[in-house]
Design goal:
It is a single chain. With about 170 residues, this protein is an alpha+beta fold. It has 2 domains: about 5-125, Ribosomal protein L10, N-terminal RNA-binding domain (Alpha-Beta Plaits), CATH 3.30.70.1730; about 130-174. It has 6 helices and 5 strands. The protein has a 5-stranded antiparallel β-sheet with strand order 2-3-1-4-5, with helices on both faces. One of its GO terms (biological process) is translation. Belongs to the universal ribosomal protein uL10 family.
Length: about 170
């Protein structure tokens, strides 16, 4: 690759890495051409970007992007899964890709500037989505409120029954 093309590739990758909230490094060695194409389609549908870049250019771009947790000892055939939204999504996608294609191996990652090992990447993949967390919070907040509403309606119901009994008793008396 001529020098000018390398500079442009590093600049493009630096920009993408600086926008990414999470990056997963995977080894795709052993995947056939059609498998890589299917993998790219799947990853794109999930809102994650897959980039195959030379290791040296990746190190330079990560350094320029200021990713402190990015591994510096990249070797072999590597691809980057980058996500800008929910930082757990690239880890979920990497885990699903590794399940579909056993040759694909998760090597490492970066989660909001923190280095992530291959073992930790699987843990990050199990984190609930933002929507799930908001649903849990809403449920947790609604529980006590619902209990209060039931308790208050019980008190009101008992009061209404007591008034009805008083009315029946006064009606019977006279």
């Amino acid at each position: 690759m001529p020098r000018q093309e390398k500079v442009a590739a590093v600049e493009d990758l630096r920009e993408r890495l600086s926008r990414a909230r999470a990056v997963v490094i995977v080894d795709y060695r052993g995947l056939s051409g059609p498998d890589v194409t299917a993998l790219r389609r799947f990853v794109r549908k999930q809102g994650v970007e897959l980039r195959v870049v030379k290791n040296t250019l990746t190190r330079i771009a990560a350094s320029e992007a200021g990713l402190k947790g990015f591994p510096t000892n990249l070797t072999g055939t590597n691809a980057l899964l980058m996500g800008e939204g929910d930082p757990a999504v690239p880890f979920r996608v990497a885990r699903e890709c590794a399940r579909r294609y056993p040759q694909l191996k998760v090597k490492a990652g970066v989660f909001d500037d923190l280095p992530v090992s291959a073992e930790e990447a699987d843990w990050y993949a199990t984190l609930p989505t933002r929507e799930e967390l908001l649903g849990r919070l809403a449920g947790a907040l609604a529980g006590p409120i619902r209990g209060l509403a039931v308790a208050l309606s019980g008190v009101t119901r008992k009061f209404a029954v007591a008034l009805s009994e008083v009315q029946k008793k006064k009606g019977a008396e006279g």
